[in-house]
Design goal:
single chain; 158 residues; mainly alpha; two-stranded antiparallel sheet; 4 helices; 2 strands; 65% helix; 4% strand; globular
C-alpha cells in the first residue's frame, strides 16, 4: 500500500510535543480569560485612517499562535506513519477519519440548534479541532488500546 501522503513516523513525537505544549498554553490562556499573553507576540499597530481593522493600538497574537501550534501538532500526530504501516492500519485510519467527520458534524448540528450568540462562536472555534482530536482518539484506541483489552480478556481453552 502506498502511503506517500503521510509524514515519517519520527514526526509523531514532534507532533505530540507541539500538541501537548499548545494544549497547556491554551488551557492557561482560557483560564486567564485571555489575560495571559506572550510579550513577544504583542505588536504595536497603526490603525488605518477611518478603518476599524484592529480594535486597539496594540494587538496580541498569543491565541493565534496557540491555535496554529495546535493545528500543526494535531496534523503531525494524526498523519504520521505508524512503525508498521499495513492495510489494517490504513483501513483503521480511514474509518477513524470518517468517524471524526461524523462526530464533528454531530457537534455542529447540536451547536446550530441549541447555542446562540457569543457562545456559538466559541463552540465553532473549538469545533475546528474536533475532527482531528476525535480521529486521533479513535485511531489510537483501535490500534493500541483495544488489542491490549482483547488479549487480557481472551479465554484460553487449552
Amino acid at each position: 500500500m502506498k502511503t506517500d501522503y503521510l509524514f515519517p513516523n519520527a514526526f509523531k513525537k514532534i507532533g505530540w510535543l507541539i500538541t501537548i505544549s499548545s494544549l497547556v498554553l491554551g488551557i492557561i490562556y482560557l483560564a486567564s480569560n485571555g489575560d495571559f499573553t506572550l510579550s513577544f507576540l504583542t505588536f504595536r499597530l497603526r490603525k488605518a485612517e477611518g478603518a476599524d481593522l484592529f480594535l486597539g493600538e496594540y494587538e496580541d497574537f498569543t491565541n493565534e499562535l496557540i491555535a496554529i501550534l495546535l493545528i500543526v501538532g494535531l496534523n503531525l500526530v494524526a498523519f504520521s506513519k505508524e512503525k508498521i504501516e499495513d492495510e489494517w492500519v490504513a483501513k483503521t485510519r480511514l474509518e477513524s477519519l470518517q468517524w471524526g467527520v461524523y462526530f464533528n458534524s454531530f457537534v455542529l448540528i447540536i451547536a446550530i440548534a441549541f447555542i446562540y450568540g457569543d457562545n456559538f462562536l466559541d463552540v465553532m472555534i473549538y469545533n475546528l479541532f474536533t475532527v482531528l482530536i476525535f480521529f486521533i482518539i479513535r485511531f489510537h484506541y483501535i490500534i493500541y488500546i483495544k488489542p491490549a483489552f482483547d488479549k487480557k480478556n481472551k479465554i484460553n481453552a487449552f
